[in-house]
Amino acid sequence: MKEKLGVVFDPVFLLHNPGPTHPESPKRLVAVQEAIKGLDLAITGIPARVASRDELCLVHTPGYVDHILSMKIDGIVQLDPDTAISEHSPEAARKAVGGVIEAVDRVMQGELKKVFCAVRPPGHHAEPDRAMGFCIFNNIAIGAAHALSSWNLERVAIIDWDLHHGNGTQDAFYDSDEVLYISLHQYPFFPGTGTATEQGEGKGLGFNINLPMVPGSSDEDFRTAFQEIIIPALTNYEPELVLISAGFDAHRDDPLGDLYLTTEYFGEMTSILNEIANVSAKGRVISVFEGGYNLQALKDCVAVHLKELVK
Ligand SMILES: [Zn+2]
Known about the structure:
alpha/beta, Arginase, Chain A, eight-stranded parallel β-sheet, two-stranded antiparallel sheet, 15% strand, binds zinc ion
């Protein structure tokens, strides 16, 4: 029997507006919603709650959190050359984090095993003390930190298959063995980090795995990385919860990058992570939306990903 799918959503995610020509458009989330509506799946809607200041501070500095939460925004304001925000962006960013936290709670309570967080803005570039790369708060990193602190987990795996390296997530857990961070990404490319030699430090040494992919890499290159490195590392780690930084910009039709994954390959990666979760994590997988900028490819990839997630 198929698993029920939990979907985190809030209308405020559509009101975060970085500007009419910005690639991180609300239309992306409309495409995701269309993909979900087109699936013949039992869906449990999960309202995104507002993350508390303390929850935001699990990963971010109090100074940065207070700066964002106290902003009075008129029009469109640039936080950095790539990251722009509008009136409702702080609320959207706060609820994106709260939505992932709510997903962690529902999954840990045993209500659901599979949840997709259809959130914006994305999160994996956000650093402890600054916004970066379209991201304000690091949704997935705070979700992982919440799972460790509130549910007493000791091993959370984050697999980040977004086109870009998740520098913010890497930094959040660089000295920790309680989060195994694994990223496949185009390299060299934005944000500039993500070499194979960045492996963690102190207790975290060996718990940060980067798989830089040269431009032109395709399904077969990713498959080799999964078979030779990712599956053995995850099997050995025995994660109690599997989180996915689910960007779809490594798709062959995406305008931002030069990786060439097929739509079907997003299903293959999902299936592998489900199997890992079945062995050590009671099947618990939470997927958090990150990038993906070709609307048709995004819609198709999300459909394949979610169908496989609940298989
Ligand atoms: Zn990306």
